[in-house]
Design a protein that fits this description.
Layout lengths: L1 H7 L5 H16 L8 H10 L3 H7 L4 H11 L5 E5 L5 H10 L3 E5 L3 H9 L3 E2 L3 H5 L4 E4 L4 H9 L13 E4 L5 H21 L3
Parallel strand pairs: 1-2, 1-4, 2-3, 4-5
């Protein structure tokens, strides 16, 4: 199920491969007749396969899956990336190595220079990074920073094209995400009425 979901997505999600690896590890180290294997027995029944045999059948390489997905994808051409800090820089440069066109923004100038030296395109604001992207990744720390880069002065949402996806990787509350969804739907639904497809 994890791998099927990963194959359906046009943008590879590392968490799916982590979940798959943990499932394999759990299967490999558990005993089939153990009470701890109850979940595995349920999934075997649902999926109609022997999970341990399937896990041992071949080695799974998440890097290879990401390459296969990105090679087949013609819908993701440009990625905007806001927040090139400790985690964001590594994520953005990995996307560059995977042959995506990535325009990045960060408030810290030396980080932007380092990103440009790695092959990324520099953005001067969240709005500039968001122009003509298929996916916008926001990797800032918290709700206040997410609010600022999305809706503040020169915020990303003002330039984000209709149909683009936002991946918010910040530490935020479920209420913030629900509110964000409503605000985005309101904005983009009104754009749909102004510019019908």
């Amino acid at each position: 199920m994890v791998l099927d979901m990963a194959k359906l997505l046009t943008f590879p999600l590392p968490l799916l491969s982590v979940a798959h690896q943990q499932l394999i590890a759990g299967c490999s180290h558990g005993r089939r007749d153990d009470d701890d294997a109850t979940l595995l027995k349920v999934w075997e029944k649902v999926l109609g396969v022997n999970i341990v045999d399937a896990a041992n059948a071949e080695t799974y390489d998440p890097e290879e899956l990401a390459k296969q997905i990105s090679a087949k994808s013609d819908s993701i051409n440009r990625i905007g990336f806001i927040g090139l800090g400790a985690m964001g820089f590594g994520m953005a440069t990995h996307l560059l190595r995977s042959k995506f066109c990535v325009r990045g923004y960060d408030v810290y100038e030396p980080t932007l220079s380092r990103f440009a030296n790695a092959g990324g395109l520099r953005g001067s604001s969240p709005a500039e990074v968001s122009k003509d992207v298929n996916v916008l990744i926001v990797m800032v720390t918290n709700e206040a920073q997410a609010e600022s880069v999305l809706f503040g002065d020169l915020g990303a949402v003002s330039a984000l094209p209709s149909g683009a996806s936002i991946i918010l990787s910040s530490t935020v509350s479920p209420a913030f995400v629900s509110q964000l969804e409503r605000r985005l739907q309101s904005r983009f639904c009104s754009l749909c009425f102004k510019y019908p497809f």
